[in-house]
Amino acid sequence: MGVVKSAIGDMLMTFSWVVLSATFGLQTTEIISAAGFQGIAWAPLAITTFLIFVYVSIFTVVFGSASFNPTGNAAFYAAGIPGDTLFTLAIRLPAQAAGAAGGALAIMEFIPEKYKHMISGPSLQVDVHTGAIAETILSFGITFAALLIIIRGPRRLLAKTFLLALATICFVVAGSKYTGPAMNPAIAFGWAYMYSSHNTWDHFYVYWISSFVGALSAALVFRTIFPPPKPQKKKQKKA
């Protein structure tokens, strides 16, 4: 039952994140317009970073230990962080993909027509091999940063969340001209499903294989630098 609850939590969280993250551009534009920040170069990045920080903080409270990124779960497992097993990972991944597909379908169904041109997900901007290399590097970077911040970073939850938001926006900007970017196979699948490209080799190669290779490589590097503590052997009492 614990695994089922985790999978349901992951599905709901991924659904909600896809719906909200798809509107970050729209929300940022509206805030800039309302606050009179037009022409200020740093305003879009600062506002988007703030939005990510706020929503991740809320999601942490609402969804607890749920996750919307299967590569993150796999990376924590590979790094030796207690929590998941191969069995739970196999159950959670399809739930996350289903939640992402539902979120993409929902936002495109209910967003007003005049805003639909502002709603989009990850999409390949370069040739497939360049995209795969980019997604591998980006997934490596964001995963290593997440492990460093969560495991070795500041103790305060708000400080961790802010650093994660800052790291996320940095990698999103870096990968925007290559793969979107996704750095998350579930979310990439959701938008690919929306446009009926989820079953193509290009999608699988760039957004699944490359993302997992990058994330797991980051986990192995992190584990090499910061080995997990060895379990202490219990001393047997002498009869």
What is the compact description of this entry?
The protein has 239 residues and is mainly alpha-helical.
Describe it.
Water channel required to facilitate the transport of water across cell membrane. Belongs to the MIP/aquaporin (TC 1.A.8) family. SIP (TC 1.A.8.10) subfamily. The chain crosses the membrane at residues 12-35, 41-68, 131-150, 157-175, 204-226. The protein has 239 residues and is mainly α. The chain has one domain (3-225): Glycerol uptake facilitator protein. Helices cover 69% and strands 0% of the residues. The chain has helices at 2-21, 24-35, 43-63, 70-78, 86-110, 128-152, 157-175, 185-194, 201-225. α4 runs antiparallel to α5 (86-110), α4 packs across α6 and α5 (86-110) packs parallel to α8 (185-194). The model has no long low-confidence stretch (mean pLDDT 91).
Q: What keyword list fits this structure?
A:
239 residues, Glycerol uptake facilitator protein
- The total strand number stands at 0
CATH superfamily: Glycerol uptake facilitator protein
How many helical elements? 9
Number of domains: 1
Family: Belongs to the MIP/aquaporin (TC 1.A.8) family. SIP (TC 1.A.8.10) subfamily.
Membrane topology: Multi-pass membrane protein
Subcellular location: Membrane
Pfam families: MIP
Write the layout of secondary structure elements.
Blueprint: H1 2-21, H2 24-35, H3 43-63, H4 70-78, H5 86-110, H6 128-152, H7 157-175, H8 185-194, H9 201-225
